[in-house]
Every structure is written in structure tokens, then in C-alpha cells.
Amino acid sequence: MPNRETVHRVCPFCEATCGLSIEVEGDAIVSVRGDKEDPFSRGFLCPKAYGLKELHHDPDRLRRPVRRTASGWEEISWEEAYREIGERIGRIRREHGNDAVGFYTGNPVVHDLGALLYRPLLERALGTRNSFNSSAIDTLPKIVQTGLMFGRPFPLGVPVPDIDRTDYLLVIGANPVVSHGSLMTMPDAPGRLKAVRARGGKLVVVDPRRTETARIADEHVFIRPGGDAAFLFGMLHALFEEDRVDLGAASGLVNGLDEVRGVVEGFAPEAVAEFSGVPAETTRRLAREIAAAESAACYGRLGTCVQEFGTLASWGCDLVNVLTGNLDRPGGVMFTTPAAPVDAALPQSKGYEIGRWHSRVSGQPEVDGKVPSSTMAEEMLTPGPGQVRAMLLLMTNPVCSAANSRQLDEAFAQLEFLVAVDFYINETTRHAHVILPTPAPSEHAGYEVGLYLLSVRNVAKWSWPAVEPGEGVPDSWQVLSRLGAELMGLRGMSEQEVDDLVLGQYVAGSLAALQERWPGLTAGEVTARLESRVGPERLVELLLRVGPYGDGFGRVPDGLTLAKLREAPSGLDLGPLQPRLPEVLNTTSGKVELAPKTMTGDVARLRARMEERAGEMVLIGRRELRYSNSFMHNLPALVKGPEKCTLHISPLDAERIGLDTGQVARVFSRVGHVEARVEVTDDLMPGVVSLPHGWGHGVSGTRMRVANDHPGVNANVLTDDRAYDVASGTAVLMGTPVKVTPAGE
Ligand code: SF4
Known about the structure:
Elements lengths: L3 E7 L8 E7 L2 E7 L16 H7 L8 E4 L2 E4 L2 H19 L4 E5 L7 H14 L4 E3 L1 H4 L1 H11 L9 E2 L6 E5 L3 H4 L9 H10 L3 E5 L5 H4 L3 E3 L6 H14 L12 E2 L1 H8 L4 H8 L3 H13 L4 E4 L1 H4 L4 H14 L9 E2 L41 H6 L8 E5 L3 H4 L3 H9 L3 E5 L12 E3 L9 E2 L11 E2 L1 E2 L12 H12 L7 H19 L9 H7 L5 H12 L15 H5 L5 E2 L7 H4 L7 E2 L3 H4 L2 H9 L5 E4 L15 H4 L7 E3 L1 H7 L6 E5 L4 E8 L7 E3 L14 H5 L10 E6 L4 E3 L3 E7 L3
Parallel strand pairs: 6-7, 6-15, 9-10, 9-13, 10-11, 12-22, 15-16, 16-17, 23-27, 24-26
Antiparallel strand pairs: 1-2, 2-3, 4-5, 4-17, 8-14, 18-20, 19-21, 23-30, 24-27, 25-26, 25-30, 28-29
This protein binds iron/sulfur cluster.
């Protein structure tokens, strides 16, 4: 009988990076527990972690490439799959140009080291302007706002709440007790939030729903979906009016303070109260409290992003932080100092620009090399030069996750060629012609290169594969690397040769960026002294050794190396966040740009919207503890129990419409309708209904048996790709106008 052993790694299912102790016997996962020795998560786990075992053993998970035929899916060899993809994409690019092939990256990539570090190779190989990603569904406003204010590409300019030291946390449009933090890497969100209160601090939640976070807060304030920017401008107005602006560490480092004062002049708390739904006295009191707190952080997430004024709301959050002196101060919002600064490998230039090109059909601006995902369907469906005729999907299911999913479904179905790198045949990949599976998260090594850029403490941890992938099963980096080589016409090159090219790019970028830290370090020395020979391990070794804690290839004898990190199976604590604003700022002025034109130019739209009569009922989403991605609905332990995909509605609205808990309601929007079982709850403010996201299974042609037995309804049948935040092009997923009736009517 094989021996049991315990493997340590990070949980791959959300941004929190909890440490896992996984008991393994042969190629079977026996148990998944929280790693008590992990200095960051200290044994904390949420129920999703158990999904690691079920995902590993899931019989629906693809293990070999498949091709769609008239009679169903057939397994093909890896070589055949690469050749077919290379030839068909090559033909489309020759006939219609590079932009005829779109590329879409889903968020599981951030948890897959190989996919994350080799995706740039695939991007270069495709050379398309039609590049989309999941951040362009739910994060684009934050990307635009922090890029323009701090001058850094995402996520390097995103300040995170210093949650372990703050005295006051204002949470807007976020539910960290359930999401476990987003753009704020922090295991044990419930414990960390409760600790704010336990040490005498205050937690305030502003949300249209009394969320799980609101339940443990000192105060919950209802706000109308889409009212966040107006509310935040109201707070800023109060700060100016009551002479409470204090820039703290940002003094002398900002441009545009007077412009901000001018912008918020017309947003007195009394003037925005009706539109935002927040009483003026509450707005004024919160402004006073946050200004008076010893330290404070204003944290906005999905609710502030995927709405009509997402960029303005994101801007409002960070303006509150800057104007109350909480930017770059302990207990405020700060910038992480990551051990593996992958940013070093990015092109280095001063300043930040958006709109270097615009989408073909609706003219949406490019951001960080991507165009908004709200444009994806129109780019596929609108004929003409540059039309997207083929797509490459990397670990994603946009038919469930993006706005106007019926239209997206039609768009994917009519493509000339669709390739998916994914281990499930889901609602989107069912349209693929070829699917290349990657190993399960339990089967690959990892380092959270992306998530540790947003960590509330500086940490580092190496994740070991719990189980080695089977014989002949390539890792994600090998799939992407081979695919990239195929698309670049480098089929004859060996894996090592392609990998040396990839390493060369990272070395060149890192050394150019880190010259001051490591004078004299050359590419030749680095390449010769790396102990790993190939793959993402070699890239992580590079980044760690040239990073701020690194050994500089022998220059700092006790500095960090990959070998040392591996000797600490539960990870390393590198200390609390440190002030580093001047180092982070990369604007052309070298200052925080408080009033970029992209935002100031969009304020008139908000003013105009405030003049309109509201009154309509709107739909918002809701995050659930047991799921972060739609594929998790195929894991039996996570979907068991009462139905989760219900329509939440306030008692007032339920009575007015004639609905009660357990009945079925029909919900209509401009683009579609769904039927869902009703749950009446006073957690929701009147005028707002809520459906969770990522559901809508049971579609023919998918191979997800558990999910298909628990289909739920797809909320994105209702969300509208033509309703978007103008500054960023992000589709509105929170605040879709809807009509609700009993199902029979
Ligand atoms: S909070 Fe849950 S899903 Fe997220 S990393 Fe921790 S255990 Fe995994």
C-alpha cells in the first residue's frame, strides 16, 4: 500500500491564498486541511478548499485533448491538436489578419503559475488587438483609475487596505466575508475584519444588500446601485467644506487638488442623498469619522466597479484615502512589496495611457493591452475587416460570466474556429472545435506571483504539486509554450529552446528595471547561475533572486532564493506593508494625479443621470461562500444543500408584486428574461433584486454532470452589454433595470 504523505500548497480557488495541508496516498488526495503553520492564513480554510479533492478526482475533467465532430467529442493526440490549431488559426490570420483571432483569458489563470507566466508568449504569438480578459469584466474601472492616478499598469498601482493595523474600514460594494478579499489578498477575512473591531476600530459597510460582511460590521448603510460615486463625492464635498482635508504622506506629492475641489462642489451630501439613497447626515458623519480616525481605509470592490459609474466610484474611493491622509500610511492603504516583482519584467516607461487603440465596432478604449469584454460579442458578430472569426479561450466560461450571455453564446457558436485551453466542456467550451486540457490545480507547482502583488502583508510561499500529473500529461506552461511556438511558426524548436527565449524576455525586463538595486548584474551571469533549468520554476527563481528580499545572485548571502523558500513548506512572513509611495509613483509628473481627464470628463454624465427620475427596479449580483468560478458547481461537496440560485427580493417589493418565498418569479430586462425561485429577505433594499452569478447550467453539449443536475439560472441573460461605464467600457452587472412578475403572468 502506498505511503501517505502531507503536501503543502496554497489553495487555488480564490485570491486569499490560504495554506493547505493535503494528505496524499499514491495519486489519490485523502484529505484537505488548513495549514496551521502557514504564517499568513494560520490554518484558516473556507468550504471551497475541499473542492480541490473533488476537482482532482472529477470524472468529467478532461485529461487529453478532444476535437468536436459531427457525432460528438473524440480524443486526439497532443501533436494532432497543436497541428490542427496551428493550421486553422494560421489560415485565418493569413486571410484576414491577426485581429481576426481573439484571445480571452479567465481568472483561474492567476492561480496557475505556468499559465500566468507563459500567457505573454501566447499573446505575442497571436499579436491581436482583440485581447480580452476577466479583469475587463469586473476590474477595468479600478485598472483605469489606479493606472491614471499612480502611473502603473494593473495591479501595481493598486493600494490595498492595511487591514491588520487599520482603525477604521469603510467597505463599499464588497463582501470580503464571502469573497475573502479581492484586490486585497488576505486569508481569514472574517477573522481579520473582526479583529478591526476587537482592537477598538470601526467597520462600516455601504451596500444595497445587508451582506455577510455587513452582519459583522458596526454599521451598515444601504445605497442605491450606481449611487456610489455620488455618495463618495458627497463625502469629499464634506471634507473640503469642513476643512478636514489632510494629505499626510502624500503632501507635496499630488497634482490636481483644486480640480477635485471644483468637481465635488456640486455634490453636497444633501444634493446626492436622493440619488444615492444615503441620508446627508450619514454621509457627513462618515466623512468626519474617516477623517478623524487614527488610520483608515476606504475599500471598494465589485459593486463599485461593475456599475454605470465604475471608474468615478473607484476614483472616489482612492480620493477619500488620499484626502484623509491615509494613502501610504500604516493602517491606511499601502502598496505591497512583493518578493517576486513580476512587474520588473514588464515594459518600463513613464506614465500610463489608455485608448492607444479602440475597439472596432463601438470604439471602446484599450486598457493595458486589452479591450473591454463588453465588446467581445459585437466584435465576433459584426461583419467587416477585423471581424473576430476565431477565438482562443484560456481557462474561462464567459457565457456564464459576461454580460448578455445569450448573445455571447450565439457569437461563439458561429465562429469559424474556437480553441479552448480548459479541463471542462462548459457552456462556452462546448462550442470549441478543439479543447486542450491543463492539469488540475492539485497537479502543478505554484507561486502566487500575481496575488502577492496585492497582499495585505508581505509573504512568500512555494506550492508543491499534491499529485504529479500522469505520464505524458503536459503542465500548463508546456501547453502554452508549445501552442505559442506553433503559432509563431517555431514548430521545429525544442521545448528548451522556446523556454530559453521566454527566460531571455524576463531576464531583459528584470535587469533593465532593477539596475539600481543590482548594479553590475548581467544577463549572462543570471542565466548561468539559475539553478532551475526550465519552466516557471526558473522564472520564479529569477524574480525572487532579483527581488527586494533576494540574494542578487550571491550579492546578499542570506537573501531569498527559491531553494530557501522551498525549505519553508508553510511559507515565509516578510513583514507588514511598508510606506513606499515615491518608489511606486510612475506618472510623468512623478506625483499622484488626483484629477485625470478621463475621470473629470465623465462627471457631467453623473450629474445628468442624477437629474433623471430613478424609480425602476434593478438587478444586482451576489457572491456565495461555496463558489468563485462556475466550474465549482460541478463539485458535489460544494453544491449539496438547499438551492442557492434564488432571486432575493425585499418584503416591500414582494408584497407589491405578489410574490412569496418559494414561488417562481419571471425577471425581464432589455436583453432577456429568466425564471427563478424567490426568497423574500429584508437584507435587500426595496427596489433591488439579486441573483448570484455563474449559474445557468444544464445546457446541451456540456459535460458537467453535477452542475447540470443543479442548473440554477444565468443572471447574465439579463445583464446588458450596451449598458456600460463610459470611462472604462465595463458592462454594468450591478444595477440592470428589470421588471419582475410572478411566473404565471
Ligand atoms: S478563502 Fe477558501 S477558497 Fe479562498 S483561498 Fe482560502 S480556502 Fe481557498
